[in-house]
UniProtKB/TrEMBL annotation:
Record domain Acyl-CoA dehydrogenase C-terminal: where: 243-378
Family annotation (Pfam families): Acyl-CoA_dh_2 (PF08028), Acyl-CoA_dh_N (PF02771)
Gene3D superfamilies tied to this protein: Acyl-CoA dehydrogenase/oxidase, N-terminal domain, Butyryl-CoA Dehydrogenase, subunit A, domain 2, Butyryl-CoA Dehydrogenase, subunit A, domain 3
Record keyword Oxidoreductase present: yes
PANTHER family, per database record: ACYL-COA DEHYDROGENASE, ISOVALERYL-COA DEHYDROGENASE, MITOCHONDRIAL-RELATED
Organism: Leifsonia williamsii
Identification of the protein by name: Acyl-CoA dehydrogenase family protein
Amino acid sequence: MMARSFWTGQATPEELSRWEAVADEAAETLAVDALERDRANLDPHRELQHLRDVGLVNLLDPAEFGGGGAHWETAFRAIRVLSRADASVAQVLAYHYINSGNIGFAVDPARQPELYRRTVAGRWVWGDSVNPVDPDLTLTALDDGSYRLDGTKRFSTGASVGDVVLASATVAGGPLDGRPVFVLLDHDRAGIRYHGDWDALGQRLSASGSVTFEQVAVAASDILGELSDEPFSTLITPGIQLAFGNLYLGIAQGALRKARELTLARNNSWFLSGVDRYAEDPFVLRVFGELLSKVEAVEALADAVGREFDAVVAKGAEVTAEDRGVLAQRIARLKVVSTEVSIEVTTRVFEVTGSSSAKASVGLDLWWRNVRTHTLHDPVDYKKLEVGAYYVNGDLQPISLYT
């Protein structure tokens, strides 16, 4: 199978501006009750419906099939913007982009038009049950050519709220015996059980609970394709890492914006400061200056790597292992700095907002809880190792679902 890319060229300033405005408006809507919804800890059905209504769900789907026809750089920007207000919902959207992106990256080109038309017509949100550190699900081949899916996966982001679930499994028996594959199942397929057991410190509305598959009937047509080391099809993994970098960046930006708002609302000043307002305190201004500078440096790198991602994707079947590896370690650099800066920003904003900002009713902890939770997804020390190994020795990491 020769991989074809529907994503060609680069995002224009007009495209970026248009969709950033859409994401900004959606973020404003989410911001109104983000803290209350976080505390309620309910799956974000209503929130995702809003993203469907404004077009963000189908942003990446090719225009020829009724989608938004936008580029990956634009999608990563949308994730960043939403993360400033509600990183949980932004995470579900990010995983949706990656999961549905498999149509263009890993599905036989002959099947792509039908899948695109169906996902656009249904405005499907794609959840997943892929977690590679859990034992594989087992897809047992049956005598009639169909299959049976069994097993449990944790950390199945978006599965409980999606219209479809993308699951990874290893085939037992039949012509695909021993091979890892992706299957696509409708949300309500008999035998799928959503546990609703996501109980993390942050990202509480990311719908990342466990899913059990008990004798789930799977048709041969439900198999999207095999997991392989073909470079183009594996761009999905650098893509999700780039989505993470933008998620963390957006959280840092949101925390900084909230801290500025709280600081401007503070009365009086510290008695030794010699100024009338906390917003004029030189130590307060120094912290804001330091944090903003770091955030804007991360943003510059995120923007640059977003364009690089589209440039590699546009090569389609001509993408080499070297292309893919170099892109992955560039994204690893973003993962390193976005992780460290976002944790620093969401922690240190309390220094400039004062003791009153620690009240539960203020909710400034939301940004820290979210980024502290998601940055544990995979160890950032290994991303530092990737960057160092390439810079010093020219070594690229082997292809995996984390690198």
